[in-house]
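Example 9 (inverse folding). The structure is encoded as follows.
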């Protein structure tokens, strides 16, 4: 899955989050919970169920 910065993802546990940073190694993504701005966490590639919004780069 090609996840990039500012994409919105849904995790397998149902949480939706915005990807803030992408790293070269696991845990690969630093995310912010879509419903709680104070909830930030790391996510591995295996935890992602789908990309719900793909940010277009300019």
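The amino acid assigned to each position is listed next.
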């Amino acid at each position: 899955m090609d996840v990039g910065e500012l994409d919105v993802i849904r995790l397998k546990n149902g949480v939706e989050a915005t990807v803030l940073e992408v790293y070269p190694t696991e845990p690969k993504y630093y995310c912010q919970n879509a419903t709680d701005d104070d909830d930030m966490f790391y996510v591995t590639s295996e935890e992602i169920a789908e990309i719900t919004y793909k940010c277009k780069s300019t």
